[in-house]
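ping. complex inputs:
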Amino acid sequence: MSHLHVPDGLLNIYWVMGSLAVCLALSFIAARSMGKQGPKAVARLAFAIAFMVVVMSVPFGFLPIHLNLAAFIGAMLGGAFCYLAAFAASIVLALFGHGGLTTIGLNTLILGLEGLLASMMFRMFHRKLQVPWAVALAVACTLLVSLTTSLAVLQVAGNEALAVEMLQHEHDHHDAGAHTGAGAFVLGMSPIFALGIALETLLSYGLAAFLSRTRPELLHQD
Amino acid sequence: MAHVRIEVTTPKRQAAVAVQSKLLLLLAVLSTVIVSTNLAWLLGVGGFFLLLTLLRRQPVVHVVTLAVLPAVTALWLGLAGMGGGTGPIVLATRAAVAAIAAYSVISLASFIEWLLLLQTLIPGLLLDALYLSMKGVERGTQRFQSKLSALRLRGVDINPFSKDGLGLLANCLGGVLLEAWDDAEEAGNMLALRGYRPGLFSEPVNWRFCASDLVVWLLAAGFLTGGIIYGAH
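pong. complex structure:
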């Protein structure tokens, strides 16, 4: 749920191109490491992409959020899978008209970080806790970190965009506001962010509990 | 005895616009929209693409709905940072027009055509996974919706904000996940059996252009020129 819904037209060209370049470079590294795992890895990657896109259709009524369970996928399959799946899901959503063409790179980097952290944290927590609790804790911690990262990006990139916009509109008397724009946005959105994190954590817990009952080997349970 | 007349018809060759030209148009329009601060120009560009949507008999309401979320986010961000004035309105209009234009241009080519264009940029393995995932998305969505419908038909209320509702939702998603996983394992076995190598779905991109491409290039140039002349105040 932590991907940026920054609309096209807000980020400047340096952010767009820079993030895309890093994202592409990392995707080749991740693909090379996955290529060694054989053809099953491709099929599993396709599964991860499809699942992430399907989960976005989960209805949450009036709430303007949708989940992608990137952290859960990271815990289940690992960071490299999650990174490539996040990249592909961002491309699919952009091509389906969901928007965010210019944020593909940034979204992939943030979701990839989410998957990697979730994978590491799940392994760490799994030593002490049962699988559903380990998954839920890993997802909650990861979402907090990745949401903070995406808001920090929004703070820097969004303020830059607003500052430029204000210069163009010659609203000099509002210049103090340019430095608090994203901050005020975050403050207004914080209840929704908190609800989103809670929903994704609880859903991940439910999914992990379901898998533990039906196919425990999918979550590395011995 | 009646004679059976068999007519062999060859499909008429259509002058199809190359996907590269569509990409050029998309980049030109997005660049124009991103740098523009002139509300009238932005509304003109948005109007043009809405008209295109109408002429192509695409669902206009759906396109407008897609533009609402980016517009609201941009308006919120603009109001928080800039206070009043026309700045936030310009930001919101820009976001909405970018969404409408991107949807209109992207829908001019199929998903496969865009993927083929991407193959030079992304790893072959990722391209293959994207191809394989297309069926998975369709099947997964159908399975999830049918599970939700089955529950609703039994009179079960799926409220994601209640403990039971969220549990049911997790179980539905778990069922979809298991079915998708089994499909993926089967596909993986088939790929292994046939000697899979990354880049299976790669195809050479067609770099031949026709007269229709020229029209699209002129349109792209028109948007860029218009953006330079009218885009700024």
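Chain A touches chain B through 77 residues (CB under 8 Å).
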